[in-house]
Amino acid sequence: MTTPVAISLTVNGERVDAHVLPRLNLADFLREQLNLTGTHVGCEHGVCGACTIRVNGDIIRSCLLLAVQAENATVETIEGLSDSGEIADLQAAFRERNALQCGYCTPGMLMAAQDILVQDLDADREQIREHLSGNYCRCTGYHAIIDAVEATAKARKALRR
Amino acid sequence: MKASAFSYTRASSVTDALKLLAQYGDDAKVLSGGQSLMPALNLRLSAPAWIVDIGAIPELRGVSVSGQILRIGALTRHVDILKSPEITQHAPLLSEAMTHVAHPAIRNKGTLGGNLAHADPASEMPACVIALDATIVVQGQSGERRIPAADFFTGIYETVLAPGELLVAVEMPVKRPHSAHFFHEYARRKGDYAMVGLGASAVLDGDMFAELRLGFFAVGEKPLLATASKHLIGKPVTAAVLAEAQAALDDELDPQEDQQATAGMRRYLARQLMARCVADMLGRPELNAGTAV
Fold it and tell me: Which helix (H) or strand (E) holds A119?
């Protein structure tokens, strides 16, 4: 009674055509059908933020979006941001500030962090903290993560001058 | 957990959506932004046979002002409300409250119509639209119905919306001269559901309230337009008047106990919010002295 639906979308710059069951969420589609396992699945009800990706330029929870809803969408995952070099400085700051810990939350944290860095390099620690407040770190490494994002914001701002 | 199996169809227009809803009846759930429905599906609290996706219906988008009425389309996302200059100008309570709704990644998908139709008693927007005296516009096969927001919510996740109807827009009077608004909520983490919250709107007459609408949330099974406000209207507010209003509020409340807070704690926080709101709107900090938490 539920038959696969054809979808076409762009993932990390590449056109993807696939057939998916309606109930399949975008996170599982990326992980299981495209082998893009950088996007992590934590709580599967939108609380933890580990599945955060970018769709049409906005960060979203990929566990709360059906793959069929991504028809014609432009999807960017942690693999895309990493391979393009878009967040190389942010990743380096995470290493330097010891913000990686177990790494489970890291892809989602990087996506959310890059989102505020794109919007506002003047964001202070409180604003960064609030922007990342939808992402849980099970190692509770929050302070180091805020440090890394703040350091990246300052460095990018200095580069602009 | 994963959602159970369902069939999916994408509506191209309101007419199309209403046709699909008439066809599938109770077997269908409407998918808008999905930020409440998807968790319910994933947790298998809901297992519809059909999902009718209204996310691509252009006529349900957009914010407009016509005369004294602000109209917000059902598919307007939370982030759009935050960024809308029209809403900031004409309904600043919504813009302010929206900063407390979930987190950026969720605000990028969640919609106002979806939020109101979902009717979570701890959600910010239902209380705010009640405080703003909004009208919920719904469409069914037989035409349009316009429902005062205060009559729309009937219980936990329950509204007067019939299975074949679609919430298409929310309308509210634009901000009037000498008006004020207030929003605050107590939550464990910014963006989480509140333990208790208050969205309020008022019209001031000098140093008194000419009108005052207090929309409390997370204090019962639906948002509450507190009638206790009548104790504060049309007279100078003193500490004794405020205490009287707080006692009346306490009588109106029927808070539930959950992991977040006991019923007693909710009553206490609601009284604090009332004091904070009145002091803030009247610019009288002494009315809230010693009660701040």
Answer: helix A106-119
Q: Tell me the nearest-neighbour CA distance from B30 into chain A, angstroms.
A: 13
Q: Which of B110, B30, B34 is nearest to A26 (CA)?
A: B34
Residue B290's pLDDT is 64
Give the ipTM: 0.96
| Cα B14 to Cα B12: distance, rounded to the nearest angstrom | 7
Residues A90 and A84: beta-carbon distance below 8 Å: no
Q: Tokens representing B188? A: 């464990």
**C-beta of residue A73 within 8 angstroms of C-beta of residue A55:** yes
- d(C-alpha A150, C-alpha A129), whole Å: 10
E strand spans, B99-156: 135-140, 143-148, 153-155
Question: Which residue in B12, B31, B41, B42 has the most chain A C-beta atoms within 10 A of its own C-beta, making it the best mutation to test that interface?
Answer: B42
pLDDT tens for B95-127 read: 999 999 999 999 999 999 999 999 999 999 999
Question: Closest Cα of chain A to B107: distance in Å?
Answer: 8
Per the DSSP assignment, residues forming a β-bridge with A60 are: A53
Q: Give the strand pairing for A58-61 and A14-20.
A: unpaired
Record the tokens describing residue A122, joined without a space: 């003047």
Q: What DSSP designation does A68 have?
A: G
A152 backbone dihedrals φ, ψ, rounded to 5°: -65, -40
